[in-house]
Amino acid sequence: MERLAASAVVAVALLVVAVTFSLSLLFFAGESANNFTGDTNLGRKPELKGLCDDLIERYGHPCSEHEVQTKDGYILGLQRVSSRAKILREQKGPPVLLLHGLFMSGDAWFLDSVNQSLGYILADHGFDVWVGSVRGTRWSHGHVSLSEKDKEFWDWSWEELALHDLPAMLRYVNKISNSKVFVVGHSQGTIMSLAAFTEPDITKMVMGAALLCPITYLEHVSAPFVLRLVSMHLDQVVLALGIHQLNFKSELGAQILDFVCDDGRVDCNDLLTSITGINCCINISRIDFYLEYEPHPSSSKNLNHLFQMIRKGTFAKYDYGKLKNIKRYGQFKPPKFDLSRIPISLPLWIGYGGNDALADMTDLLHTLKELQSDPELLYLENYGHVDFLLSVTAKRDVYDSMIGFFRSLRGKSSISSL
């Protein structure tokens, strides 16, 4: 009886949280005219130019804009970046495709100086750098028939990013360069990669992959802000209210953050640490500049899929519920992504940190056990989730090792002596 009573109290508490949150959003929605799309930006800059002109070319790196269409109709932005040195531009090394994390986009690889940002560093080492931005971000270009105001536009999760966006990018780069492609992913970019690499048609286009803060299993996430959202069932409430786009630069996104922070259970004075873990080495003075570009929008379904993984401890396709799963998958539970299907011949390099509250070491060990291969590992005890992208010492700590890995796979190539 005591257990039943306790369960009832918990259920009532969750219901109160959900209703309170729902009412606050419904009130806000009544004051806005955005039909829960969350697309009214706070302080939005004038219409952005391409990523090349807006950011990448500031240090003199040649950059060209490209578009690629996915099989399900999304038009993705790609940028091709070359070295400032004429001789390296004329003798392009192997192509490298950069895949960003959740609520980020292709600009994430160019937010620091020319000697600190991985996109510039790879280009100046002679690599043929390609920068990917997934559907829904500000550097993608919409859909062939859907508007961003359509709920169908946001009907996707990282599963579609892995099985549609990444293959489309790889095919395009593979065709233009006539070469297999190195893949570099950070956070969401790694879950896309590892899921995609279970498909033979995708891996045949890949020469090797470097995974920063790899994510497949999320059962041991320790980030307080994330765990608070999971416990509030925020992802499910948002979907139930018909909110399909998550844009934390919108008034609705700000409303959600305020709601979570106001209950005092999460330290929002240091929100980055509450979300990612303690980052040792980012340049705090540049935070305002970073926020000019980040965060980017994503879909509510994508967040829901990630939260399903935290709750269930699985690396699987999206869970639609038993009845819809039977219709879609022919079984009650969504199929798992089988990491043992990643070919042992595909070289992998992994960088991970001791202070990462999202890509936990216990979950990484789970991933490593399921892989056939033995990836090359780089462990940095003091690194958090964002350090691998924005640390002022990342070139020395991380990127030199990654570049060495790529060079070892090319042997005596045009870049081996750079």
What is the fold's blueprint, element by element?
Elements: H1 2-31, H2 51-54, E1 63-69, E2 75-81, H3 86-90, E3 95-99, H4 118-124, E4 128-133, H5 158-177, E5 181-186, H6 188-196, H7 200-203, E6 206-212, H8 224-231, H9 234-240, E7 245-246, H10 251-262, H11 271-276, H12 287-293, E8 298-299, H13 300-312, H14 322-329, E9 348-353, H15 361-370, E10 376-380, H16 387-390, H17 394-410
Helix pairs in contact: 1-10, 5-6, 9-13
List keywords for this structure.
Rossmann fold, 8-stranded mixed sheet, disordered C terminus, signal, two-stranded antiparallel ribbon, hydrolase, alpha/beta, lipid metabolism, 418 residues, Lipase_euk, 17 helices, AB_hydrolase_fold
Protein described:
The protein has 418 residues and is an alpha/beta fold. The chain is 41% helix and 13% strand. It has a single domain (21-305, 341-410), classed as Rossmann fold, CATH 3.40.50. The protein has 17 helices and ten strands. An eight-stranded mixed β-sheet has the order 1-2-4-3-5-6-9-10, sandwiched between helices. Strands 7-8 form a two-stranded antiparallel ribbon. The radius of gyration is 21 Å and the shape is globular. The protein starts with a helix and ends in an 8-residue tail after the last helix. Residues 1-36, 38-46 and 412-418 have low confidence and may be disordered.
